[in-house]
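Query structure, 146 tokens:
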């Protein structure tokens, strides 16, 4: 095999791997609504958080979240692109202090919520490779960070 054919074969192989990796990724659009009493603006954001397991509701959450995005209105849509994990779990946090850096646990008094089909149990969001899955989640001030 000459060098040209070898390089061409390598390029085809890499393209095939890239295409296959892209086939496994998906997008997730979350329409989040915070119906609590606090103001939502550039300082007091609502954060939508992606997790790879439902254990984020326990103190032994373990792994950090997959991704996190903030919004500055009580009702907004966020999109997570190129999600590699399937299924995912979604939680929401409202920052009443306006000082949370989103790199540490939420401050005491933060309102918490998660995407669920049954009360009190995070629901898995199954993603379709190569497509955008859309969900809606609403939360209020019923549950707060201790």
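Result returned for the query:
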């Amino acid at each position: 095999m000459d060098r040209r054919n070898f390089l061409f074969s390598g390029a085809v192989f890499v393209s095939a791997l890239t295409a296959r990796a892209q086939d496994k990724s998906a997008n997730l659009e979350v329409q989040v609504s915070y119906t609590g009493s606090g103001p939502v603006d550039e300082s007091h954001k609502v954060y939508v958080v992606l997790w790879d397991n439902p254990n984020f509701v326990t103190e032994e959450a373990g792994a950090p979240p997959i991704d996190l995005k903030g919004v500055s209105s009580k009702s907004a849509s966020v999109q997570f692109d190129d999600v590699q994990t399937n299924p995912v779990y979604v939680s929401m946090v409202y920052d009443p202090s306006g000082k949370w850096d989103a790199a540490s646990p939420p401050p005491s008094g933060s309102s918490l919520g998660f995407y669920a089909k049954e009360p009190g149990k995070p629901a898995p969001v199954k993603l379709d490779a190569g497509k955008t899955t859309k969900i809606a989640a609403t939360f209020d001030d019923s549950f707060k960070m201790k």
